[in-house]
Amino acid sequence: MAASLHGAQLSSHKNGCYLMALFVVAFFFSTALTTVLSILLGLIWLFTEQYKALPKLLKSQPIAGWSVLMMLCFIIGLSYGNATESEALYSLGKYKKFLFIPVLMVFFHDERYRRWAWLGFTFAAALTVILSDIKAIGIVDLNPHYVSATIKNRITHSMFVAFFAYYCMSKSVNSPRFTKLYWGLCALSLHNLFFVVEGRTGQIAGLALIILFVCQRLSKKGLLVSLVAIAMLMVVFLNFSDKAKRFNEGIVNSKAYLEQNLDPKLRKNSAATRYVFWEYSAKLIAEKPLLGHGTGSFVPQYKRIAAGENLSPIHAHNELFMIGVQLGLLGIIVYLGFIASQYYAASQLIGENKFLAHGFLLTLVITSIFNCPIYDHAQGHWVVTLIALCFAPTRDNSSRENYA
């Protein structure tokens, strides 16, 4: 009986490892499929009794420990504040993705399953870019809900594509047989990012990732030449391309806001509204700086303090502000610890794994400045899965038993 159960657990865990590749594809295209697969993977984790090794994983992998601590802060935040029960539980449900990190890590202990997941990512990201270009041309509108040429919203799309462009740059160096293919996909992705969808967050991330790539891979002389070339191309893009309109609007509105000279009519511009959200979020944090207003408090508290703005954001468009309003400095410190643990872990990796981990972390940090990637459904699942994929201990360096 015991042998039969163990065999079933081995088979279930193996199937879960392969399901991860499908899971990576799912959050590019389907919210429903992502939800179903996340539940299924959780059930496999329970059936295979991986929870028994959780204490060892949390001890050996600080990222997993910080993610669980972040979730505990949100649970504690349920005990205070004026948010309704439904608001508090809704916010808690958004941030439950932090718990996915130690769960998903157990499916990436074997290098072959990591390769399957990266192949799934490559397929899904490439298809996303191609479908976006097709939608932009007008051949078919796969998701008329979004005006821009995307399947997901513009922010999510640009985040995915920016990192994919960097991933292709990295793979072009480490996969000589497919160098031309990866550079082609990189060029297609950058064109989509700057000339098709024009998501400003993704454009900033994409530019930062290009600079990171040349810093990682080139000599000092090559780095200098590359940085000059990048700067010249950006000057040409911003001054002569009609596709730079949204980027230039963001620069103008940012300057006007900093000079306290922003036209009230422009306060509903997508760039200007972020500054308004941040301004009121900072005021809310100042009201209760230590522990915040409680889990789920952002929406009701924002409505209270910014009643005259006629804006009703569902989040602060900044992960630190969003967490800070709800959990105060305690939550901010824990989230910064979560970020710092990834930087430390990435520095311990070698070769391409190290470069990809640094690239992913840079993408997460930039997106966290302008949006709430953990809070968002597609972005959040993408973030926690990539963290598990980049930082899960392999069979060789893991100190725990696993079924891989």
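^ that was protein a. below is b, sequence first then the tokens
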Amino acid sequence: MNDADINEELSLVAKTIFGLEDVLAEELKKVGARDIEKHNRAVSFKGDLGTIYKCNLHLRTALRILIPIAKFEANNEYELYNEVKAIDWEQYLGVDDTLAIDCVLNTELFTHSQYISQKTKDAIVDQFREKYDKRPSVDLDKPTVRLHVHIFNDVCTIALDSSGESLHKRGYRDKTNLAPINEVLAAGLVLLSGWNGRSNFIDPMCGSGTILIEAALIAANIPPGYYKEDFGFMRWKRYKAYNAELWQKIFDAAVEKIDSVTPKIYGGELSHNVARKAKENVKRAKVEDMIHIREGAMQEFEAPEGGGVVIVNPPYGERMVKDDIDELYKEIGDTFKKRFNGYNCWLITSNADALKKIGLRPSRRIPVFNGQLECRFVKYEMYQGSKKAKKQNNAEGASEE
């Protein structure tokens, strides 16, 4: 691959979770992306091959990094098939290569994403079969090329997926409890909270430890892709063929910037078995020197002095009796008041009714999705002393300046 190919400016798209678009746009600025534009669950931008590698390595709130290669209108399966077949697929793969196709539909014209994936695959392999009497095969796990098909109304966009496996699968999490939080969402919550990476950070209902681990990675500047040994772009042979030397240079530069800090990160977990899983995940992520997990109920959590940030991802109530979930949220609110003076306490939930039982007035409410559930990420400022005294001190401080 020559320098012109490496430095060619490309139109790119980073997919994310609803509610994290602003955070992702800020991350993209830091890796040198250009012409950044926010969309629903995605951010588009410009960059070269090095940008693609950096995005896959560094972006905490991206699910996939895509390179759109074709865009056309399709009102039925026949138009779709013909448009896909008209693309010169030999630019991207050969008859001995493998492919996989993911599909996302936001249209009334097509209803089954699996069927659209199948029609797209048929068009591609038919092109090869007619020319060579051979065809690429399908490999759902580690294909040479993974394609992303997105249809919005009658507009179909086909993109190369440079990430391969979703970027939320960091590689450090082996043990999980029931309904673990997505790593991308966990990182997004930490970044949305505004935690500075140095003050106390607490998740007193930490489950398998994902929020704690993502906080540690942020504090120490450890890239989220540090643990992954495989990305989709590493199998590319034709278009933007894998440049191992460029990847190693980018990876080594990232490792050099890892900070040897030991932030104050604390977790609490009631279940002994779940706490054990969390500790194993922390060890796999190699951040056991930063994270301290205690077994016990949130109501008994001893918060360190000095304030900081608390993030809680409690049960949302899908599997609980209403009275039990209401009581749990009331206890969470009481615990914020009694145990976390001086902290900014954040909670994510999809249960608007239970949220009212917290009994505190939030200072921020951020819409965000956890899987298919529409949630609110809510902030409660637990002032040291009364809120009135806090305002008075702020006013006195301002008048002295």
